[in-house]
């Protein structure tokens, strides 16, 4: 289905060292124990789509989301683009007719990298 998120990948984001989730086409449920990182996944998606860290009400800056003891974080998501849901001028030459992959990385030294 066009415009749906098909995959989420996190590295060193909050409590997640390495997480790779494939999502189904329709409804998906994220379940787990308290403190297992369910809300962290949703927070990562908010950040991936451009939300400021302070607007998540979970951190003051993006580097506050870097897992304790790590130097950087990475967030990536794949969005289905069938029927050209995402316009080509938004993603430029990185556009794939089937899937658009976007990622964001942050280092503790305040360098942020946006990859599309």
SSE layout and pairing:
Blueprint lengths: L4 E9 L2 E7 L15 H11 L23 E9 L7 H4 L7 E9 L4 E4 L1
Antiparallel strand pairs: 1-2, 1-3, 3-4, 4-5
How would you sum up this structure, described in words?
With 116 residues, the protein is mainly β. The chain has a single domain, classed as P-loop containing nucleotide triphosphate hydrolases (Rossmann fold, 3-Layer(aba) Sandwich), CATH 3.40.50. It contains two helices and five strands. The chain has helices at 38-48, 88-91, and strands at 5-13, 16-22, 72-80, 99-107, 112-115. The protein has a five-stranded antiparallel sheet with strand order 2-1-3-4-5, with helices on one face. A hairpin with a 4-residue loop joins strand 4 and strand 5. The longest helix has 11 residues, at 38-48. The protein is globular, with a radius of gyration of 15 Å. The two termini are 20 Å apart. Residues 89-97 have low confidence and may be disordered.
């Amino acid at each position: 289905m066009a415009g749906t998120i098909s995959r989420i990948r996190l590295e060193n984001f909050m409590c997640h060292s390495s997480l790779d989730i494939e999502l189904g086409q329709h409804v998906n449920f994220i379940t787990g124990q308290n403190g297992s990182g369910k809300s962290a996944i949703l927070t990562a998606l908010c950040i991936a789509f451009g939300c400021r860290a302070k607007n998540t009400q979970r951190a003051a800056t993006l580097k506050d989301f870097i897992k304790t003891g790590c130097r950087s974080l990475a967030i990536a998501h794949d969005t289905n683009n069938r029927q050209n849901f995402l316009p080509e001028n938004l993603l430029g030459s990185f556009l794939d007719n089937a899937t658009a992959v976007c990622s964001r990385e942050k280092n503790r030294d305040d360098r942020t990298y946006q990859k599309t």
